[in-house]
Amino acid sequence: MCSRKRRFSDEYGSLYSHLPFNDVKEVFLGLGDEELLSEDLYREIYFKLAKKLIAEKEYEFTLFLSANVEYIKAALEGLYHATYSFDKYKTDRKKLPELTINVNSNIAEVEFFEILAEVKDIMQSIFLSRDLVNERAEYLYPETLANIAKEKLSKVGVEVSIYDEKECEEMGLTAFLSVGRASERKPRFIVMKYLNNPESEEIYAFVGKGVTYDTGGYSLKPSASMETMNCDMGGAGTVIGAIHLIASRKVKTNVIAVVAACENMVSGSSYKPGDVIYSLSGKTIEVENTDAEGRITLADSIYYTTNKLKVTKVIDIATLTGACVVALGEIFTGSITNNQEFFDKFKLAADKAGERVWQMPVDDSYRRLNKSKVADVKNTGGRYGGMITAGLFIENFVYNNIPWIHLDIAGTTYLSKPEKYMVAGATGIHVKTLYNLVK
Ligand code: BES
Ligand code: MG
Ligand code: ZN
Fold first, then answer.
1. Is 221 assigned a catalytic role?
2. Most buried of 23, 318, 323, 352 (most Cβ within 10 A)?
3. Quick check: pTM over 0.90?
4. Which residue's CA is the nearest one to ligand 1's atom 14?
């Protein structure tokens, strides 16, 4: 007892492990002051614990944990976070460990196994989202993204429609098609429907930016910033993961996810700086910079979603601006809204998920920055306030001013280095927020 005391304190993060006579390793984990604990601290500490144990080739855990249900869930999430890695291109990769988890806790065993099943579903959809975003553009392009979405989502009861370039033309998605025109890999417009609550009029729409690679086009990116642009379909990854989770859990709700998938490339058929293009809404867009392509694809996808699909609330999720990363780093998602009540509800869902979101101001002075001399709007609002002007560009295409939230995940979807219980690379950010919101 005395020697254990020396090696282990109850400080948050303190770990003591030993092997008693029965050959089952016992690990003591310090959680610190109970008053200061949060779900995220549980996620983080159990992630660290599992990382250590997995490195020691331990895959079967019995938790002795007396805590409320939310904390137990968070601890389990932390454990599962430790099992993810994107190593499919490593020829000496190891098989991902399958964890076996039991509990000796204050809650009944049946309840525990229900919680465990939910956490497994959550993590599976987050990992699906991560796998999509981590995949390289050589293999993941509009057609393959659409096919994977169809394959994965059909299995859980989501109806997936895929429209090719010709069909998109007939639908009038001119702005979207301008961005994708230069690529050999042709665009796809993907509509995913999960309508499981006929008694409710409410239909949530999640619109994800699906630029499977962003070179910048003729406003070419320097190669150092281009290198990670396989992540530019991070919004698509989130909405596909979210609808996958919602359907896997059979949540009684109505959700439609929409992705306009294309590649922003350079060729003889590219759209060019100075072009004026048409959009589905009828509004014309001056292209000041071909690298501000995401908002152009979203203009058509959000107008289509709010005007044609008769949804009642809409959230767009996009790796939209470097300005957002400058402002908030890789820590907080930047956000704007046209409806505070909707945002407040959304914010609770995000907080509960441990997924940090920061609301930016909205003002006519920002809106004016998007005014064009030649067209109805232009696709850049200048260097200053770039995250806000990008979001407000999209606002122009929300039909009938229905409640709308814009999420800029340029910083949070794909990490340059690990953060808490997230490894570097794709995070699957906001899959859980969106699930919490509709649940
Ligand atoms: N895909 C980028 C934004 C981005 C930056 C995503 C960093 C992930 C990490 C987007 O299409 C872009 O290029 N935006 C421009 C807009 C500018 C030209 C107004 C940017 O932020 O530089
Ligand atoms: Mg760009
Ligand atoms: Zn982009």
1. yes
2. 318
3. yes
4. 321
